[in-house]
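Section: Multi-chain targets

For targets with more than one molecule, the full set of components is provided together so that the structure can be written out for the assembly as a whole rather than chain by chain. Components appear in the order listed by the source. The example entry contains two components.
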Amino acid sequence: MNFQDIIFYFFSTVLIASALGVITVRNPVYSALLLVLAFVTCAGLWLLLEAEFLAITLVLVYVGAVMVLFLFVVMMLDINLEKLREGFWKWFPLGGLVALVMVVEIAMIMLGQHFSLEEMPAPEPKAADYSNTKELGRLLYTEYVYAFELAAVLLLVAMVAAIALTLRHREDKKTLDVAKQVSVNKKDRLRIISMPADKKN
Amino acid sequence: MEFMQQQFEQLFGVEWGAMLFTLATNMTFIFTIIVPLLLGVAYLTFAERKIIAYMQIRVGPNRVTFFGIPWLRGWGQPIADAVKALMKEIVIPTGANKFLFILAPILTIMPALAAWAVVPFSAEMVLADINAGLLYILAMTSMGIYGVIIAGWASNSKYAFLGAMRSAAQVVSYELAMGFALVCVLMMSQSLNLGDIVNGQQGGSMLHWYLIPLFPMFLVYFISGVAETNRAPFDVAEGESEIVAGFHVDYSGMAFTVFFLAEYANMILVATLTALMFLGGWLPPLDIAPLNMIPGFIWLLLKIAFLLFFFLWFRATFPRYRYDQIMRLGWKVFIPITLVWIVVLGLVMQLPQTVREGFPLNLWF
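Its structure, encoded as tokens over all components, is:
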């Protein structure tokens, strides 16, 4: 067991423990924070696989932006745990069945011949000037450019739709027109009058 | 160095010795970065109080001194402040979530310090010379927001929570403008490595710095940096007049001081990154005899100090933005500017070689 193995087992243990915590912890804020921990440790594992661009992007996008908004929402919600737990045993058989099917499916893929250790050896160490980012960019913008652009359009459509669904026009809304405010000049607003003094001396 | 490595290998065996030696040298490097940084933070607070005082025609701190030396009056102030903060009691409010309340300041200072790992101080002086350095810094600075949100929530106070929400929305919005401004830098330098970005600005004089072709991006980046660090005039997260002191209203003693340290460490980080990416880092403004004999590290420090002065100047000069104005500036002004500039830069890069070379001043590449 060398240094890298120790790091791998450390990260894996933390990852599994925090992932378990996400679904078992009672407090939803803790749950969201444990998910953040899971993302960060997962990024650590990806770094071990020499996928530094993906690892850092995972932290940047999911930890830095998505989970912040998640946490935001979770903190503002008033979650009633008793009510959430009410139907637990009633729906347990169905949920258990779905979980079982998923576990079997994942096991079939992971234990199958295409994912064995011989098929997926540890990545070859790359030279120091090898840039993961450059290679990924080259691949995305040449070979997979259509798929990439389609995914981008899909996201844009979803974004516009989300805004369109929540946007409500209110008649009584009071907004400031900043351009108007900035373009105000002294002449329109200020009138200087000369007034003789009331008293002499 | 090699003697030390041999010692380690004798003590712990060849494989483990080499690993532990790397660990030990890296720890030493980390301390040589962190200790001056924290001293810099301490004296930045002193500089802030002095500079703002002079701008407001006061004298600022002028009492605490070392060993009674009269011309050092005031210079002991940051040390005295630190000692005072260490002595103070840390009050944990009854309704607070104890674990998260303590965790929040730690989560704030951690990324503020971790980001320094990839910052180069001169052509050779860098702890981790990684290819995705800039991305790493973006990822680290975006994690700083957790401390603020958790602090706001764990304090179990309305004011703290309001401050946390304001801060979170503000930081997430300005991160976009910041990221897009950095995309322009990447397009110019064609590298994510901070050392390569500075080397890309080499060329004899300050006309080759990215400051000139990317001037709007420099402004966007620096102003977004001020907003990211929650500094005046964007400090609505603290907003004394509205929400007392924002997310750290319930913190006291060292727990509060850690937030304070993180804020100033982030200021220095933003100033350093701006210096590296737009002001040519450790390169002298003119590559001629007296100027290029000064070591690059000194030039970098001068540029950082120059930019930090702006932070203090802003605080002394501008009134606080209103919240909707902050959001408008981020989303409706900065992001469109950066998007347009990315397209302009892309078009310039696509111009044929002859046209680009005939460009006035030939600032583009």
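Chain B touches chain A at residues 15-16, 19, 100, 130-132, 135-136, 138-139, 142-143, 145-146, 149-150, 153, 161, 165, 168, 172, 175, 191-192, 324-325, 328 (CB under 8 Å).
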